[in-house]
Amino acid sequence: MLSGDQKNSYNNNKNPHQIGINEAKNSNYETAYILPKQLCTIENRKVIEQELQDPTTRIPDQFQQYYLDYQNKHQRQFLKCVNFIGQITFLSYFFIDWLLIPEIGILSGISRLILVLCAILINWLAFRYCKNIKILDSLLPLSVAAAAALWLGLLVLSHSALVTTYIYAAVIFILLGNLCVQVSFRNSIFTSLLISAVIFHGVFQLISLEEIVLFSFIYAPILLLSMYISWNNTLNSKRNFLRVLLNDWNYYALTELAHTDELTQLNNRRQFLQVAEQAIQKWPKYNLACLLMLDIDFFKNINDTYGHDIGDEVLRILAEIARKEMRHTDVLARFGGEEFIALLPNTTLEDAVAIANRLCRTIENHQICIKDKFFFNFSVSIGVSQLQPNQNDLNLLIKNADIALYQAKKNGRNQVAIYTCE
Description:
Elements: H1 4-12, H2 14-26, H3 42-53, H4 64-92, H5 94-100, H6 105-129, H7 133-157, H8 163-166, H9 171-179, H10 185-206, H11 209-259, H12 269-282, E1 289-296, H13 299-306, H14 308-325, E2 331-336, E3 339-345, H15 349-364, E4 367-370, E5 374-377, E6 380-386, H16 394-410, E7 416-418
Helix pairs in contact: 2-12, 3-11, 4-6, 4-7, 5-6, 6-7, 7-9, 7-10, 9-10, 9-11, 10-11, 13-14, 14-15
């Protein structure tokens, strides 16, 4: 059993345990989580940074699908609204047809209404069932090409003298077709060629060669301006996505730093408390679990005799040996100073003691070399406690293992002690 001072010492250290658990419960880590953790490498970060500095930013191949998924999530509603506004805008131009080319006003209204209803139906089906954002990104430009063909067909049927002037309104189609492209600039190139082909096919039927030249001089700058805006939109979409990737990378890096002991690369105290508490709360009522508390024997003497750099090497070696001895389901951490802790789920007390004894012998037999001249050994003492049926108190489990660890020290060190209720 512990002496009065030792009990008070442990009780004074209990608050940090509880604080760590409460903070873990109340923490709320929210991030885009676009970049999978396995892709958070230094090489990928360099690739992202290089692309952000490139004036023609492109999405690296390994991130293409993540880019499309991201755009599908963030641009889908925008494209849906823009498509609807575009259809209503095209339908509203019926009133201009009625004023300028009244002889085909009724035909214009009926044909526009049919085209808009068909486009709205197609859009509804596409946005309901299609997950490919590239297809959704090209819906309005294709609708604009169809609308341009219909409108130019109406002008060909009209005999109004205002047709040669009204034809200049065709620039609206190329503007509308390009301004809505957000995901892929290739869509803008393709639709620009398609809409331009449709427009010039109608223009050649409606005006003279001299007027076509004048129309081209007016149309070309607007075409280039709309394509530049489209290119800028897609460029900003790519850069925003890459910046989000960097945020994800930074988040994972900071999380790793916050949860990992820098010297041993094991979980730190805070991370252990969080993971262990969550695990215990989720386990079934009669789950078998044990906890090991390890402490390096005479660690202060090692530091005083060989130096703190050798002391750090001892800690790293202990962490590496313990990591190899533990199973992938075990939760291993550096708990503070020369103290380590491990939660062993689905483990009987007998198995936990066997693991602890094997760990003791492996560490005892490991020699540390100093400057290729001198070798020395070190040992650990281990306390073992068991999670009792209907028990889910992590603090109590840690306290019991700490009591057992003290007993192992008292019995002569370099051994395993089991917590008992007596």
